[in-house]
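Sequence in, structure out. Go.
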Amino acid sequence: MAKKEVYDESSIHVLEGLEAVRMRPGMYIGSTSRKGLNHLIYEIVDNAVDEHLAGFCDHIEVTLERDGSCTVNDNGRGVPVGIHEKGMPAERLVYTTLHAGGKFDNTAYKTSGGLHGVGSSVVNALSEWMDVEIRRDGAVHHDHFTRGVPDLDLVAGMLPILGRTRETGTKVRFLPDPEIFEVTRFSSTEVKSRLHETAYLNPRLTIVFRDLRGDEPAETVFSEPAGITGFVQDITKNETPVSEAIFFEGDDEGIEVQVALRYVNEFHENVLGYCNNIYNADGGTHLTGFKTAFTQVMNSYAREIGVLKEKDANFTGPDIRNGMTAVISIKHPDPRFEGQTKTKLDNPDAARVVAKVVSEQAPHFFDRNLDTLKAILACAEKAAKIRKNTEKIKTNLLTKQKFSFDTNGKLANCVSRDASKCEIFIVEGDSAGGSAKTARDRQYQAILPIRGKILNVEKASIDKVLANAEIKTMITAFGCGFSEGYGNDFDITKLRYDKIIIMADADVDGSHIGTLLLTLFYRYMPELINEGHVYVAMPPLYKVVPPKGEGEYLYDDKALDSYRKTHKGAKFTLQRYKGLGEMDPDQLWETTLNPETRRLRRIEIGDPGFSSEITDILMGTDVPPRKEFIYEHARDAELDV
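Output:
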């Protein structure tokens, strides 16, 4: 008989202090992957940027130290150190208590990104140790924490003092806790991209980045007096421009609005929204206000100058935004975000104010720049024509072609219709596909073989993308449609599989196939990645079999080197899996399909501007930037030998 579960007063647990953060870190920083790891830096940097917004900081230094820790140093006012009414130094309250900070009213900060008051304390909780030095009131005050717990004794109730100084500011150094994070090495590329973005959003702020971890320490200084105008120019630097960067700004109801946009001869829409320097990955009301107002303004102009006739329907918003890269940055005294990671803005007044600024300021620009106006409307005309042709393809793809157990004779579907339990493996070739079909759990695992390399969607127009047989099969199998600049038919609630797993060979061709698939998902089905549904299978590269005993799978060359070091002089047979088709069904199940033993890598989108730029460089049509990138990162490549 099964053991009876007891639910009484003893079942109720209270997590004290920062225990809740360590128990559920994903609630506070999104994930425990490298993306979440880098987020620790951003939380501390954002506090320094808030000091800048308040008018007390113009210099921030971020250093990746040799020991794996990170130091963030600013010249702001310094965290208050006096005794709080709670009976402890205010600094200690800030770093050890959730929802403690100076940003819950407008007395200390007019605008701020850290409105939940958990950033500093969360970083502290998720660090093996944190060291804080505060330059304030003529002294250098010091505190130290181990996994969120203070371990320095107070002196007469106050923080210890290291010395005297005339400077002000806060220096925080922390080491991520390996008990929490999957990896503990910060990504310098992603951190630099985020800091550069922050410099664009704050044209009077200088940020110095140092990476001391390599053989040759590197330093980069970010200072962007051109602001978000320079930002859109940088994002589009590898594209053929249709217009120069356009900038306008305004304010109302205490909300400040800045808009910069540029059109290029590349039919992708890239609109980025920021509130109080925080990137809102899922957009929000400020983007809604911008899109609505800009569409109205441009349609009005289109009729006024005769681009649209009386009988013509208006251009759609996606028509008008095709080719647009835009940055909308607002400063709001009381923003409401969805979640601690602030991915979406939810203030109705933001939509109203942004729409008002766009409706008033955009005409001021276009009235004086008719050539730019006509060039943009020409893009909208072209987009509208392609949209109408595409709608015919969509109708055939999404309505006439019904989903079946064997779409186009390829998909070996699973029995279950519970999407939360089902997963689909995209497998290269009939050989690996046949082996996977035999090895899989038919109840929950579907297999979709594809023939070789799919179309590179970064170089193709939408009509060619939708005409590609392999892509059509995937769209039909997933069941949720697709997103693109000519309308949005994507509905994540209709997704038939919780996990979409790319299962390609562990060689150069397999990596290329995986990259092409990820480019497709990123450009036309980004919600799949944003919602955590896209994975890459990690099949082993080797199997070592000793004369006696069981064999062992090794997943990369580092694992093989380690095995050889720990088995010096031992004899063993080494099998190299060049392709998945070389595995028999039992091996494929054990290493790649079995949820209990397999390894999967979940795909995440990091910094938005950086991700889009890298995709364009590596997968786009412009060759010189790709060569430059390859030369610069050649030493980082993993060679297939």
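Check: Residues 617 and 628 are 10 Å apart (CA to CA). Residues 7-15, 102-107, 400-408 have pLDDT under 50 and may be disordered.
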